[in-house]
Amino acid sequence: MIKTDGQHRLDLVQAGRRFDESGFCPATSGNLSVRLDAWRVMITPTGVSKGAMKPEDMVVVSPKGEHRFGRKHASSEKDMHLLVYRLRPEVGAVVHAHPPKATAFACAGLALDQALATEFSMMVGPVPLARYGTPGTPDLAASLEGLIPGHNAVLMGNHGVVAYGKDLFEAAGRMEMIEHFAEIVQGTLLAGRQTPLTPEDLAKLHEAARRYGERSKGR
Ligand SMILES: [Zn+2]
């Protein structure tokens, strides 16, 4: 079922509230977007708390970032969202936030790319670490460009996380899973050891995920 623009506005409000309640977006940080069609992306406005957004606050921009609709200004990170849409034609939603545990890894200079937890390996996969890039500048996009095609999310050095998926539900779910996985990895570091899944385990998991995907498509 194709969603109307109005439904996408409500989805963004709801996902923003959820991120805010989870502590992923302190003050007015973080931004979320959905691809409406080949010509339009709907993105959250700059300078508004993710917990206090109204449906009419959302801004519509062209794939090049030109303002198309809305009274507010688009997020200053819109270029990063548009880069993901350009590099990943199948992606329908992009979310960026600063969840504290995952961001701690980004600030420590550590990727979250260990194959340790089954669900995470199936739903998200390895999350690489991009070098630091100044927010809101082409330097940030340049730091992410090479990592976006092969991954479902990227840790942004000294900054936060960008995650994406076929729709907002999948993209936001990945962000939540990344923060949860960061806590798990933290636990293994405290325990002083990690027991990674083997390449054979991973191959079987991906096969199971593929079969599951086909089954749910057939429903
Ligand atoms: Zn940020």
What labels describe this entry?
7 helices, binds zinc ion, alpha+beta, 8 strands, L-fuculose-1-phosphate Aldolase, 219 residues, 16% strand, 8-stranded mixed beta sheet
Share of residues in strands: 15-25%
- Give the CATH superfamily: Class II aldolase/adducin N-terminal domain
Q: How many individual β-strands? A: 8
Output the radius of gyration.
Answer: 17 Å
Secondary structure tally, helices: 7
Present as ligands are:
zinc ion
Task: Give an overview of the whole structure.
The chain is an alpha+beta fold. It has one domain (5-193): Class II aldolase/adducin N-terminal domain (L-fuculose-1-phosphate Aldolase, 3-Layer(aba) Sandwich). Helix content is 42%, strand content 16%. It is built from 7 helices and 8 strands; from the N terminus they run αββββαβααβαββαα. The chain has an 8-stranded mixed β-sheet, sandwiched between helices. A hairpin with a 5-residue loop joins strand 3 (59-61) and strand 4. Helix 3 (100-108) packs across helix 6. The longest helix is centred in the last third of the chain and has 24 residues, at 168-191. The radius of gyration is 17 Å and the shape is globular. The relative contact order is 0.14. The mean pLDDT is 95.
